[in-house]
Amino acid sequence: MTAVTRQAALTGMAAYFGASVFWGMNVPLTTALFASIDPFWLAFFRQSVAMILMASLLAFTTGAAQLRNPISHGRVLIMSLCISAFFICYNLGLQRTNTITAAAIMAGSPVYGALVGRLLFRVRLERGFWGAMVLTIVGAGIAIWGRSGASGQGLDLQGGEVLIVLAYFSWAIYTFLSVRWFPVEVPQLRRTYLTSIGALPWLLAFFFLAQALGWAGPASLPMDSTAWTYFLLTAVFSTATGPVLWNVGVSRLGVNAGMMWQNTVPVFAVLIAAVFFGVTPLPEQIIGGLVVMAGVLYMQWARMRG
Fold first, then answer.
1. pTM higher than 0.90, yes or no?
2. What is the reported pLDDT for 79?
3. pLDDT band at residue 243, thresholds of 50, 70 and 90?
4. Which of 76, 218, 236, 287 has its CA 20 to 30 A from that of 178?
5. C-alpha torsion angle, residues 77, 21, 126, 166 (rounded to 10)
6. Which is more confidently placed, 298 or 48?
7. Residues 15 and 246 sit within 8 Å (Cβ to Cβ)
């Protein structure tokens, strides 16, 4: 392996690691925000703040000309629709199923990504994919089994499970389209900004439609300083920085590796909840998390070895 390739692999791993940590942080913070902010409105409001941050950073670092769209607006709207569908389906799915069932469905993220790549884009699976997938799913299963026994919850279908699967399919489609439709020279920050600003009209339309159907409450702001802190943390790191790091990881290591890294999100969610919210992780969660990380690292090792 050349030095350039090795450096790209290490950069991709660091980017995926950062995105997974920020998205793991998003789980307990967003759960707390649901107590005071409607999920439909939260998705639009948080994406708006993240878009402003990305636009400011992009204009400051590379110039205002980089805010212009270099590809067709139709393609940006399609990718933005995929992002919006992910946010809406993910939030509604979490609300309409228990955490054990949701975790079990999320453990299949490598499979969802592989299916999208193979069926829609004819993408070949990378070296080490199947071994890594087995390890990540087994590790997630260990953690889910331990949490199920401790909480008394089981795998109980409540209607939101299909929405979570659709969310992961939407995110995978967006990722593949971003790689194929943006020219190689377009920076990852610019790609994320363009698709984020394109997601705003979709999210706003979803919010008004949900209100008309009686599914969403009124638009509101965080209720106190703690809620504002949670909101800004998720807007800056989970909504703005996380997707940029994800796109950097995709550009270096590919989509299949990213789908493996998505299985570490619950691991980091548990660790962050333990450190900042006093939630004690179960032994099975720790063991399962280590097995998941082993699967992710195995795929990276197989890639570098090849």
1. no
2. 96
3. very high
4. 236
5. -40
6. 48
7. yes
Structure-token pair, residue 288: 């399962």
Task: Convert the pLDDT of each residue in 73-88 to its tens digit.
Answer: 999 999 999 999 998 9
Separation between Cα atoms, residue 260 and residue 134, nearest integer Å: 10
Q: What angle do CA 53, 54, 56 make, to 5 degrees?
A: 65
Instruction: Tell me the H-state helices in the chain.
Output: 3-33, 39-62, 73-95, 99-106, 109-121, 129-151, 161-181, 188-212, 225-233, 242-253, 255-262, 265-277, 283-305
Q: How far apart are CA 165 and CA 160, in angstroms?
A: 9
Q: What are 129-182's pLDDT values in tens digits?
A: 777 778 777 877 776 666 665 555 554 555 677 888 899 899 999 999 999 999
Q: How far is CA 90 from CA 17, 163, 187, 189, 281, in A?
A: 21, 7, 27, 23, 24
Q: How far is CA 113 from the centre of its chain?
A: 12
Residue 165 structure tokens = 């699967």
Tokens standing for residue 255: 């989509």
Domains of the chain, residue spans: 3-305
Query: Do 282 and 132 meet the contact criterion of CB atoms below 8 Å apart?
Result: no
| CB neighbour list of residue 286: distance below 8 Å, 6 or more residues apart | none
> What is the torsional sign of CA 61, 62, 64, 66?
negative
CA angle, residues 225, 230, 236, in degrees to nearest 5: 120
Could you tell me if 88 and 261 are in contact, meaning their C-beta atoms sit under 8 angstroms apart?
no
**Paired tokens of 127:** 């070296």
Q: What is the DSSP string of 215-234?
A: -S------SSHHHHHHHHHI
Cα–Cα nearest to 178, from 278, 259, 250: 250
Q: Tokens representing 34?
A: 């649901």
At 229, give phi and psi (nearest 5°): -60, -45
